[in-house]
Amino acid sequence: MKHTNTIYELTFGLLLLLVINPATAGDKLPSGKLVQTDDEAVLTLPSGEKFVSKTVGSVDTDNLEDILIFPNGQKFASETAKGGGETNVPFVSTDGAVVAIVRYPATKTDTLHIYFKDSTGKFKEIENANEQVAKLLTGVKVKWPPNYDPPQEAAKYALDLLSMSGHTLTLNSVSYWGGHESKTYQFKVTVASDGSLALAK
Predict the structure, then answer these.
(1) CB neighbours of 91 closer than 8 A, spacing ≥ 6?
(2) Residues of the chain where predicted confidence (pLDDT) is lower than 50
């Protein structure tokens, strides 16, 4: 009976942790509160700052856009083929200075968007993040079947964001080949205070 009570206590403790801190998700999100509805996701940091991701427009008129709204009211829009702003939550550094999110403008196209806070407190988007990251992978060699694009080429079209630690992003370059299983190459990129990118160890 004592053993059973201990199991109940441990289970209750784990559930309590999930309720208190529902948005940690490993290293993916900072401590805070995540609320998802049918049309948007709201991430609230311990400081009270809110980041809102949502999809606007209509599939019928082919004008869907994913919108990311920052705590200071800035809005950034990106094209999307299927929406999903309510389920695609941004990764935010614990100091709130770097924000990253992946959008899906077309089938098998994963576009990375990175934002950094400048000296004035405004957020700026790093232009063509996929292209910039792809250049960092120049020289990377992997033993993949010839039908797959190498990581540096695949990164131009498909980057998955796995986690964030400080200002360092853990990414996957994803190479697709028809209906076959995709190939991935994992690496890390650090975002500097001026928005420049560099490979991290």
Answers:
(1) 28, 29, 99, 100, 101, 161, 163, 164, 169
(2) 2-27
Residue 51's φ and ψ, nearest 5 degrees, are -115, 125
Contact 41, 87 (CB under 8 A): yes
Q: Which residues pair with 68 in a beta bridge?
A: 53, 76
Query: What does the block give as tokens for 38?
Result: 């049918």
State the Cα–Cα distance between residues 136 and 32, nearest whole angstrom.
32
pLDDT at position 82, please?
66
Residue with tokens 């389920």: 87
SS3 at position 168: strand
What's the rounded Cα separation, in Å, for the pair 195 and 187? 18
Spatial separation of the C-alpha atoms in residues 118 and 193, rounded to whole Å: 7
Q: What is the 3-state secondary structure (H, E, C) of 105-117?
A: EECCEEEEEEEEE
The domain locations on the chain are 2-200
b/e map 125-141, b = 16+ CB within 10 Å: bbeebbebbbebbeeee
